[in-house]
Amino acid sequence: MNGSRDDSGMISRNILLFVSSLEVGGAQLHVLDLCRYLAGHGMNTAVCSLKHGGVLKARFEDLGISVHELLIGSITDLAKPSVRMRIREILAAADPDILHAHLYHAEIVAAVAAAISDLPLVVTRHSSGLEFNGLRRMIAAIAGRRTQRVIAVSEEAAKEALKIGAGRGSVVTIPNGVDTSRFRPIESDLRESERDRIMRDQFPADCDPGCLLIGSVSGLKPVKNLSMLVEAFAAFESSPAAGKEGARLIIVGEGPLREELEILAEGLGLERKVSFPGHRDRTDEYLPLLDVFVLPSWSEGVPLALLEAMSCGLACVASRVGGMPGLLGDCGLFFEAGDIEGLVEILGRLAADVSLRQELGRRTRIRAMEHFDIEIWGSRTVAVYEGLTGRGVRRSS
To answer: What pTM, to 2 d.p., does this model score?
Structure first.
């Protein structure tokens, strides 16, 4: 039933991935990249989302990936016979060999699916200190009895998984990966023309091409601490360190704090110098045009946006939280979370030293290619699948 041989004699496995929604977020983009990778390596994937629709749904379907919707309002809905019947229907349609869950609510639903089907379950923990607190921690510990492997994207996430109750031998740390062939620096002539176009589009009232272009790609939500970035930018841009041409800030992304951030920027007199273009599918068209990438989060795992910025060869600046120090190593610059003065000082250094920006960008690109290329990440994830035991697992010979 599950697992069939392809022309090469390898087993073609079916993977059913559970995710809380298909709205834009690091975990959802991680799942999209994973589906794309697995499809290129002889595996079939389907996705179960707990909510209807989502910005990314069409992107999954465009790749030929079936999207199943469970549509539950809360974890307590799992007690309803109709919800359990829907889980059985999804399992029958996807015919999986392996279940793989991402984010807390999807992890609990996948544990129920594993109990119904007796299939092996893998979960990926994308952060630490955010999702598994209070009652959630106890529920996750109970659901974790169905989990064979926990993939942690950072050492901090791995430590949290162990504290919640995962067996030491079941936890493996696999940082996120990035498609370094897609996210890459672009030729100087093309960069100049594209940057000019973006500047005129995003800053029509004040598009000095010689300015320092600072950017971030992020969900506009509290944990990302983007208000601090706007405030730091205001302090930097009004200082002599910004230089004669000044600076501009572009924050790509969407989320509940968008209006609040726009009001903040306007209140600081930055409406001509800060842009919020919203969600963009092709961030690889924006990132190579930046001079500096900043991620000021209060908490992080291993953010894909930072990996993508590294892969594009940018000078990267980040708060010293979560997996970001391990991600950047000695190739980036750090400030303590919430330290506006520290970030302003770093921006001043980078504005004054073009060679420093170029050297940091060169090193981040090399680090992304050598340690975080999507082929490295994908092969390590497949190795986790290969190590599973139980019903549905088929071995190649």
So the answer is: 0.85
CB 86 within 8 A of CB 70: yes
Angle at 340 between CA 335 and CA 345, to 5 degrees: 65
Do 255 and 171 have their domain in common? no
Collapsing DSSP to helix, strand or coil, 108 comes out as: helix
φ and ψ at 215, to 5 degrees? Answer: -150, 165
Q: Which residues, at least 6 apart from 66, have a Cβ–Cβ distance to it below 8 Å? A: 46, 47, 93, 94
Q: Is 204 found in the same domain as 115? A: no
Q: Do residue 221 and residue 361 come from a single domain?
A: yes
Which pLDDT score is estimated for 3?
Answer: 52
CA 163 to chain centre: 24
- Using DSSP bridges, classify how beta strands 247-252 and 274-278 pair: parallel, antiparallel or unpaired: parallel
Rounded Cα distance, 55 and 60, in Å: 10
Residues with Cβ within 8 Å of 8's Cβ and at least 6 positions away in sequence, in order, are 42
Q: Is there a single domain that holds both residue 112 and residue 195?
A: no
The two structure tokens encoding residue 342: 């520290």
**Do 223 and 363 lie in a common domain?**
yes
- Rounded CA gap, 397 and 42, in Å? 15
Considering its fold, how many domains does the chain have in total?
Answer: 2
Q: At 79, phi and psi to the nearest 5? A: -80, -10
Structural domain boundaries enclosing 349: 188-371
Same domain, 244 and 140: no
* Residue 210 binned pLDDT confidence (cut-offs 50, 70, 90): confident
Q: What is the pLDDT of residues 20-71, one digit of tens each?
A: 999 988 899 999 999 999 999 999 999 999 999 999 999 999 999 999 999 9
